[in-house]
Every structure is written in C-alpha cells, then in structure tokens.
Amino acid sequence: MRLKLIGAGLGRTGALSIKLALEQLGFGPCYHMTELFMHPSHAPLWERAADRHPDWQTLLSGLMTMVRRAAIAVSLTAALLASQRAPAAPSVYPTGVTRYDPAAAYNCDVLFSAADQKTYLIDMDGHVLHRWDLAGFPAKMLDPALTHGVRGEVGLQLSAIPAARGNGGTGAVPGRPAEFRNETFGIVDWSGNVVWSWGARAPGGAALQHHDWDRLAGGATLILSSRSGMLNGFGRRQMLDDVIYEVDAQGRTIWTWTASAHLRELGLTASQLQLIERRAPADYLHLNDMEPLGPNRWEKAGDDRFAADNIMISSRNASVVAIISRKTGHIVWRLGPDFPAGRDATLFALGEGTAPGRIGQLSGQHDAHLIPEGLPGAGDLLVFDNEGEAGFPPQELPLIGGSRALEIDPVKRVVVWQYTGTKATFYSPYISSVERLPNGNTLIDEGIDGRFFQVTSQGRIVWEYVAPMRGTAGGPAGAVYRIQAVPYDWVPLPGPHSQAPVQAPALESFHVPAAE
What we know:
This protein has helices spanning 15-24, 35-38, 43-50, 56-59, 61-64, 76-84, 270-279, 297-300, 343-349; strands at residues 2-5, 69-72, 96-100, 109-113, 119-122, 128-132, 140-141, 154-160, 182-188, 194-198, 213-215, 221-229, 239-247, 253-258, 287-292, 311-315, 320-324, 331-335, 366-370, 381-385, 404-409, 414-419, 433-436, 442-446, 451-455, 461-466, 483-486. It is of the alpha+beta class. The longest helix is centred in the N-terminal third of the chain and has 10 residues, at 15-24.
C-alpha cells in the first residue's frame, strides 16, 4: 500500500476541499480528520503515528479494502488536537453535580455507561447507587411493566469478539472498538445475573448489536445490528450494512429489515449515491438510533405513517431521520437530507432563530424519537442535532456554532421548542442524547465530555452533572453515548432519595486551594 500525505496543517485551511477534489478526480478515498468524529478509536493510533510508531495497517484498514493506493488528505495537527477533545476546555474542571434545584428539577435516578466501560446508576446528588461491570450501547433499564414487575433489569453488551480474531466469519470489521464487535447482547438483573441473551443464534453467530435496542410489550426485542459484505454498487469492497432484527423471547429472528434495500427511499439523490459508492467508508450510513413510535396522536388522527409499531431510525452520516413501515418495510416518512441551505438556515443553526421556525440543517444527529404519550409535547419529534461533520458531501458548518436539542412537529415540519445554550457553549459533534421528562423539563447528554443536565422549557439549567469516570480506549476520556432518566419506582432500593440542593459557585471566586 502506497501512502501519499498531501496536506498537514491546521483546520479551516482547505483540507476538506482538497479531499473532495482528489476523490472526484479519481485518486482514491482520502482520509480526513473528520473520520475521528465517527471513529474515536483512531485517536491513539494517530498519537502513536505522531510519536513515529504508525500502525497504518489498522488505522487505514477500511481504505485498504477499497484500493491498493490511497491518497491520505489529513489535517494532521488538527487531528491530533481533536483526538484529545474537539471543543476547547480547561485541563482541570469540576466533576460530579455542579448545580441542582430539587424544586424545579424532575427528581429521578440516571443510568449511563461511562468511558471506563462500566454502567452506573446515580442519584441527583451524584451518588453511585449501583454499578454493573459491563457497558451497554446504550445501557437501558427496563420498565417493570415489561418484566412482570421485576425491577432493576438492564440491557448490556455481554461479550465482544476479540479484536485479533478479525472478521472470523462474524461480520465484524477489524480495528473497530469493542462496542462495535458485540458478540452477545443480553438483559441482566440487579445482581448482574443474565436473564436473557442473544448472540449464538444471530446470523453469523454474533449479535453485532450497536447504538440501540428496544424491548417490546409482547416480550420480543428489536435489535439494531450490522452485516459485513459486498453490496451492489460498491465494487468488491467489504461494506457495513445496518440491519434491524426482531427477536422473540426464545431468540428466534421473526422479522428483518436491511438498510441497503432502501437507499433511494432515504432521499439520497443519484449524485449522492454515486459519491457514496466512490468514496464512502465501510460504515457509510451509520444508523445510530432505532425506536418504535408507540401510541401517538398522529396515528389516532388517522395518519398511518405514524402507526404505533412503525420504527424511527436515524442515519448519522447521511443526516436523515426516517420512519419504517412495520407492515411493508418501506420508508413512509423522512426528514432530510434535503434541508434548506443558505444564510437563514445557518443563522437558525446558530440559535439566532426563535421557535417555532424553520428546522435549518440537521448534521450528524442522534437519539431521534417521538415523545411518548403522557409527557409534555407527546407526539413531537425530539432529536439531538449535533451539528457535526456529516452528509454526502459533508455539510459546510459555520466556524462558530454549537449543538441543538430540537422538538419538531413532524407533520408541519417546524421547530416548536429548542435549546441551543449560548451558541458555542453547548457542543458535542458526535454521540449524545435528549429526553423529555414528566414535568416538562428536558434531560440532555452532551456526550463528548459526559456532561448531563436538565433544562426547563425556558432553557434554565436546574441540574448538571459531569461524569468523573475516565476511559483509556481512545477518544475523549469522559465521553458518554446516551443516558436514561430512571423513575425511583423502577429501582429495587428503598427511599428516602437524596435530593440535597447544590448551588453553583460564583466562577470569579471558585479556585483550587493552591491558587489562593
């Protein structure tokens, strides 16, 4: 394999334009620093390369399956900076609960898998109530209504395919982090005992569950998974195809949906498909969300697109949110990728617009779902708009901007509520989640740095927590993919519950002791 380094420097100096130009001229797929946002595990490989110990075989394995020669367009300095933390931040900062107003917050426990590959349940004062020594992608606690009243059952990834084993017939892609090499997915109880698992009966003998799963009322489980193989239009490259399986209580697959059969329905144009076929990474769609719609006001009004058993999906790389008909398998509703372009959309993305209003451009979004019945805003679409690099070609993003939590009327296609922070003070270019709470507050995971917070409908932060757990597997050390608000009565612990207020200190007087 012959490598050609044709660009090294700071970002915003034309590296992305050079990459796109070279690919369109036929010089092969080009690596750009934006790959780090989709593959955080690449970060330590670039750090080793900077220390003169490159492992090109692992780092560029996806490109090597495409062509014998690859042009590598890398904004290398910026890539190394991004490997530590994309947004600027101090090297020392508070962790744990930094503010808490019990009278204004929705008081509950919070479940999450941390960067140390363990799963934690904390209370609103940041005390760890319980820990499971496994991670979920994501971890979710089941509603006791789905477990015959048993409380504290959690879905986790139980085992991973060894990285050294490579494909091994499982469809795993060598070099990917453990959460993408899931061998067995399962449900464990409060004590960590496995009560249900799926993997050996999966196609290829491994679950390969990633990004989402959901337990259905009848006892079946929806699992977002993947397959590796050669797809029509992609030449003789090994590509990842996103797949949804419905698996019954005995582990039998009773329904399957495959993304590659519906590319046109996702709104991708002929030119976009050609661009994808020429240069897309193996994980070209990168579905990061899969949620059954559940009962909703649109179905009750006669709109079959929103049937309760239909499934909402989100493609991070294509910036598309869509609904799959459970009956036909076809896409019956979608948002994106054809968002309005131009200055108005950019200003709205920066928080200059006011809801209700235009959606603007979603880019690399996560956790798209309809707000469930019984909650404020029920039936509206809630989504974390990362405003990260995504799209075919990649969406041009403003120099100064941030992420958005959006509530969207899915029929009128307008924003009815949003949280943007103060422009660049709220930003996670990948992962992250958003959840509507029973009192109308919204729980947000700014995933890149493991910052969780609740905001009121007026945008006031009434609870904030920064996860202190650190990871060593590459990517931002405190990153948290998704979080879940857990009602007190889902957990097998007695009350009372810790709800001590935390007053945020005045920043001008908040110093570490040695600095006094």
